[in-house]
Amino acid sequence: MSTATVEKPGFGATLWEYLTTVDHKKIAILYLLGGGFFFLLGGLEAMLIRLQLMLPDNNLIGAQFYNEIMTMHGTTMIFLAAMPLIFAFMNAVVPLQIGARDVAFPFLNSLGFWLFLFGGILLNLSWFLGGAPDGGWTAYAPFSIWSSTHGFDFYAIGLQISGFGTLMGGINFIVTIVNMRAPGMTYMRMPLFTWTALIASVLILFAFPALTVGLFFMTFDRLFGANFFVPEMGGNEIIWEHIFWIFGHPEVYILVLPAFGVFSEVISTFSKKRLFGYSAMVFATVLIAFFGFMVWAHHMFTVGMGPIANSIFAIATMAIAVPTGIKIFNWLFTMWGGSIRFSTPMLWAAGFIPTFTIGGMTGVMVAVAAADLQYHDTYFVVAHFHYVIVGGVVFGLIAGTHYWWPLIFGKVLNEKLGKWTFWFFFIGFHLTFFIQHFLGLMGMPRRYWKFLPGQDLEVGNFISTVGALLMAVGTIILLYNIIKTSVNGERSSQDPWDGRTLEWSLPNPTPHYNFKQLPLVRGLDPLWIEKTQGNGKLIPAEPLNDIHMPNNSFLPFMISLGLFITGIGVIFRPDSNVAYIAIIAGLVIAFGSMFIRSVKDDLGYHIHKEDLEEEGAGVE
Amino acid sequence: MADNTNSNYQDQFFKEKHKEEMKYQVITFAMMIAFTIIAFGLVVGDFSKYLVVPIILVLAVVQVLFQLYYFMHLNQKGHEMPSLMIFSGVFAAVLTILALTTITWI
Amino acid sequence: MSTHEDVLSSENLPHEPERATLEGKNKFMGFWFFLGGETVLFASLFGTYLALKNSFGDAEGTPSQELFGLPLVFIMTVILLTSSLTSVYGIYHMKNQAFKKMMVWFTITVLLGASFLGLEVYEFNHYVHEFHHTFTAHAFGSAFYALVGFHGAHVAFGLLWFLTLMFRNAKRGLNLYNAPKFYLVSLYWHFIDVVWVFIFTVVYLMGKVG
Prior knowledge:
heterotrimer; A: mainly alpha; Cytochrome C Oxidase, Chain A; two-stranded antiparallel sheet; 20 helices; 2 strands; C: mainly alpha; Four Helix Bundle (Hemerythrin (Met), subunit A); cell membrane (chain C); membrane (chain C); Cyt_c_oxidase-like_su3 (chain C); Cyt_c_oxidase_su3_a-hlx (chain C)
């Protein structure tokens, strides 16, 4: 056992380990790589959009390609970048924060990742197989149904596959947090990131099934001759809008709540203070989730639902500003009187507060149904949701990247480069999107391929593109920082930020069983309690014993691969009968793997007490 | 020996308890069948639609609660989280159905 | 603490074998949550059905009042309700550690489920050939087959699940490893029944009333 840790495994062995792993820490790395890749891809698409719109009547890219780029930017960023990156941090951090040795369903955890990856690859294959979807990321019915390429087939099947993965991930984290907390870790002692992960997972559980149904309808309509969204056959396009937003609005909170969690951890750690108003923060999180389910139709004020429906949804939407305001004030009060260190994660948190507040204020503006008739489908809305999603989610993810990098990879990212990233990205972001509020108010519609000269839109668009370039520079610096740190960064201490929560109590690198003995949690911020009132080490809650661990498995990869092949077959079935071979082969692979999974006993293995004692001697 | 009789005694206790539970299950089943027949009768019997629809919907809801609480043991200990999640799901479900039936241009 | 041999042994099972291990507890919890999500899935299908019920556009179609034949659906309902009861009997015997009796009751459940599915296929076939009520004919057809078909697919999956478990464990009896699995499949089966109660009421009975 102990010799294996000393010898460096070869490339093949490492690859196989990652293909089969069920360890949440390694799955976190996979999510980080996958999500990071799609984030860069989505960013590239954003740059093309901005370059096309830099000058009036520009002809850098064609109209059809612009539509595809614009659609794929939104889809990629939401489904393939933000979601998996959120899952990366949930995987890396949540089990450690609650004092668990693993997640509840390690196999499903791995399956969730591979489904996401294969779904994402399938969706992006559309670039090479006849054209990407071209009707906007919301895929509203007439565009998506009558779009002539296979683009929206890829959209429906690709998101369906990755959506299954997300749903599994959500259930996995709810059960993990409900069932596997360490002794003494009551609900009201859980770190706020864990709380937000729990609530976001609950939202996933109730929001994603609606998307599943919507995507099935779209698939049926496009590929199997159904008529859900075809008015001349009795169908109704508004159904798609409802179902999409019943999923889509909670999705916004699924993304932003964990980001709130990251900021709560960061602000509390770098202010060296307990989070102000912890229970109010928890309550606000739950309240946001609850309201989050009752506001979806504010995306549809211009549909013509009638004044009563519009008023109800307008008021519910404005109500969300209250718990969000509670959070903003609690973060400010946490900083108030604290001894603040402006390390890179804290810079992002400090930048987040004003940015997100602006996004929230424009949110209340667009929530006014009557006024929204003016704002709808203009750049005002584009500016609003980028303030919320970039200012909230992306800032949170980058803050989390810097904050938890030492936990995941054992090295601290370069602080100097981190600050350069922040300033480039932060200034670039505001340059890009603040001006878009005014472009919108001046009447520039969103999703248009070009704008014409002589309408006073030139300067604003040019500034916006310059800002986007600055954001790109910031991202490149971040990439450089990551590569530099990985190549010649030094291994950090186990607790580089003087942390407060359980994940910083573990040795660096974290052992694959996480906790040799489950810790006893004596209150909120358990590590901080032990630092101030104990000897800085957690008290074990159990004697040293054998640890039960799950076996690695290649089946998740096979199941996802099978569904991927089936998906390709389904998409090309109308073109050629050869596609049936793919459909059947894929189903055989997928269901065969599931069958093996259910028939073959998988009891895991035990790490023996004696080996643990031996390892323990090495660590100290 | 003592240990053995003790566990036998326990077994006996649980068996009795399960039997008791099973009695409720069968009663539940009988009532569900009865409700189904009543609903069926109401529809076949050609009453006013404004009378029939609310009644059969209520009957359906009661049947489902029977299933959840007796057949699926939601009434037993350790089912707090499942109840919370199921009823949260029902909340989302009701909103969904309400929206799709009222504000979808039909 | 518990070694492999313990988990696979059929001796001395605890009072609630489905929740005796951490794995069992996790599965139990996770599956209930999954059912919570399924509620929303079926709600979306129900909502769509109600929005598109008797909606034909320019296409020709038979309205629900003339389409549905209640007696067959009534029999299907009774069959599915009964299969729900028989699976309760299965779990009853599981808790009493009477493995053979459990298998008998689950076999009956599977048979009832299969006959339900057979009747449903017959019913669909009838609609297609007598009324030309197909999936592609009009929005009503799409929504009807989507809702009832999704339920039928759940029944089919439930049957496969039951059969796989029963064949896999036929020789080795009940243990802490498979007890949670049997418990979950029976929960799933009840949930299918719950959905059907609503389909019977909302689709068929209300469809008949108009």
